[in-house]
Amino acid sequence: MLACTGNPEPTEPIVQAPPLVEPEPAVPSFDAWPGTPELLPAPSRVAASLQTHGIQKACAEYAARVSFKTDVSVSTVAAARTGAEIGALVVEAPVTEPAKLAERVQRIQAGLASLNEESLALQDTANLLVFLSQNPEPDQVSVQLDQLHAKLLMNMEAQSESELLPVLLAGAWMQTYLLMAQGLEANNNPGPGHALFFRPVVGQYFSGYVSSVGQGTIPSGMLGPLEETLVHLRVVTEKDPMSAEDLATVREGLEDILGML
Fold it and tell me: 112 and 71 in contact (C-beta within 8 Å)?
């Protein structure tokens, strides 16, 4: 009887399937402070290494040319520049007059303030400026910096989730390495490069950062060159002894990265 009627047969409603949403790729975890002291060597250890290889004076002369505007609005740039100033300070401290060191500490303080106005390190830099104003002897400066370093190591655990700590450390390491490379070239002595630069633990730390959270925090224009420089550093610094060409590769790569700041 239904077949004879003029009414159409009822149809099932068409249900549109929800569009497929691709899940966002998970960002690999990264510990900004894995508790490895080698990531933050004592100033006296750096000074002893430079002195052993006879490049302390030459490195300090190049460090005197390093000057960054650290209080900028882009936090990653501010952190990297502040780190670079710290690296220069550690290199030049044993042989540079206190008034010049104070100028650098002021830039470091400005950078730290731009990153965090409540940072406990601001009081430490203020105390260091007071100390430098008393025109201390070089050995006293070294002792003071080592004391600050020991205090900093005790507080690093609280920074294990900081996205900017690896950037600051990278700035310090790159500037220190660049000054070392310039010092070796000035003395026409690339051989000690392996002893000064080959730090697998440090390289693994920065490579891990770049491949994880660094993908979202490092400016895109710097990311590729930084990855390339890390690869070159790992390959070249494995050589013992390093050649003049190897040393030039290290210097040029670091100059390119720091020049972007």
Answer: no
Written as one letter, the residue type at 209 is: Y
CA-nearest of 106, 96, 108, 94 to 130 is: 106
- Report helix angle 200-210 to 220-237, nearest 10: 160
Closest CA to 233 of 203, 258, 259: 203
Rounded to whole angstroms, the Cα distance separating 240 from 245 reads 13
CA pseudo-torsion sign 194, 200, 204, 206: negative
Instruction: Answer whether 79's CB lies under 8 Å from 170's CB.
Output: no
Contact 242, 236 (CB under 8 A): yes
| Preceding amide of 136 cis, omega within 30 | no
Residue 253: CA atoms inside 13 Å, Cβ hemisphere, count? 23
pLDDT in tens, the chain (261 residues): 233 445 555 555 565 656 666 555 555 689 999 999 999 999 999 999 999 999 999 999 999 999 999 999 999 999 999 999 999 999 999 999 999 999 999 999 999 999 999 988 999 999 999 999 999 999 999 999 999 999 999 888 888 889 999 999 999 999 999 999 999 999 999 999 999 999 999 999 999 999 999 998 888 888 888 899 899 899 999 999 999 999 999 999 999 999 998
d(CA 50, CA 84): 18
CA dihedral (102, 108, 111, 115) positive or negative: negative
CB 237, CB 198: distance < 8 Å: yes
Structure tokens at 182: 């310039």
